Amino acid sequence: MELDGAVVIVTGSSSGIGAATARLAAGRGARVVLAARRSARIEALARDLPDALAVPTDLRDPTQIVRLVNATLDRFGRVDVLVNNAGQGLHVPVEQVRIEDLMAITELNFYAPLLAMQAVIPPMRKQGGGAIVNVSSMTSRMVLPGVGGYSATKAALNLLSQVARRELAPDGIVVSVVYPAVTATEFHQSLAAGGRVGGGSWAPKPHSAEYVAEAILGVIGSGEEEVLLTQGWDGGAV
Ligand SMILES: NC(=O)c1ccc[n+]([C@@H]2O[C@H](COP(=O)([O-])OP(=O)(O)OC[C@H]3O[C@@H](n4cnc5c(N)ncnc54)[C@H](OP(=O)(O)O)[C@@H]3O)[C@@H](O)[C@H]2O)c1
């Protein structure tokens, strides 16, 4: 998939990895559609980028996901790439997981990417293809105490993505997963509950949002099934 001229929806683009992905994609010629709840932030970013559209969206509301994709089609007439990036953490031990918190992050981390995929599949199929990148987490590939609830939502997304990749291949729609590790964003200040996990023998140096954004754009280009951003690569550390 070439980014130049492509219409790219980035969810969770009011901060962190999503904002960095939107900026980088626009810099490479993409027409970017920004989705998040903080409308002032995405509207300001859209003004900064050429031919970008901000669609204030609460992704926990299925009707707003449909509205996001319809707004994209109304403005650009197509959708080439969906980056399902919005997400929230829940960093407490299993014993302390409140079911309301788990339901809320499941709506955002698992149901919303599914509903967004379902909304873009018909137009992508009609166009003859597209790319979907689901942003997961390295915590879903580890057994890390303290993040079980969050990791479980991402593990569900991983398997859903793997199945979708096989189901959609005949339509030319390529589904990939990027697995960020600890990244320096607002994520750790906006957890549904709990605090930053780390310290002791596990205190990795965070990646930058731009480093993760590069990986997301890379996978759009390559169509690889997954990219694991293991910690410890100094070039990407903040
Ligand atoms: N940072 C890390 O260490 C790390 C590590 C592994 C994986 N990840 C994953 O990377 C992705 C991006 O996170 P980040 O690090 O960039 O964190 P971030 O800076 O906190 O960004 C999260 C984004 O999600 C959006 N969001 C939250 N709830 C939403 C809702 N109900 N509707 C629409 N948008 C919503 C936020 O926008 P609004 O608040 O404006 O709605 C924000 O733009 C997430 O999926 C996260 O799980 C992060």
Verbal overview:
This protein is α/β, with parallel strands linked by helices. The chain has one domain (7-236): Rossmann fold (3-Layer(aba) Sandwich). The model is unreliable at 233-238 (pLDDT under 50). The chain is built from 6 helices and 7 strands; from the N terminus they run βαβαβαβαβαβαβ. It starts with 6 loop residues before the first strand and ends in a 10-residue tail after the last strand. It has helices spanning 16-27, 39-48, 62-76, 99-127, 148-168, 209-222, and strands at residues 7-11, 31-36, 53-56, 81-84, 130-135, 173-179, 226-228. α5 links the parallel β5 and β6 (173-179). The chain is globular and about 50 Å long. It binds NADP nicotinamide-adenine-dinucleotide phosphate. Residues 12-18, 36-38, 57-60, 85-88, 108, 135, 137, 180, 182-183, 185-187, 190 line the site of NADP nicotinamide-adenine-dinucleotide phosphate (NAP).
Task: Annotate the secondary structure layout.
Layout: E1 7-11, H1 16-27, E2 31-36, H2 39-48, E3 53-56, H3 62-76, E4 81-84, H4 99-127, E5 130-135, H5 148-168, E6 173-179, H6 209-222, E7 226-228
Parallel strand pairs: 1-2, 1-4, 2-3, 4-5, 5-6, 6-7
Helix pairs in contact: 1-6, 3-4, 4-5
Bound molecules: NADP nicotinamide-adenine-dinucleotide phosphate.
NADP nicotinamide-adenine-dinucleotide phosphate binds at residues 12-18, 36-38, 57-60, 85-88, 108, 135, 137, 180, 182-183, 185-187, 190.
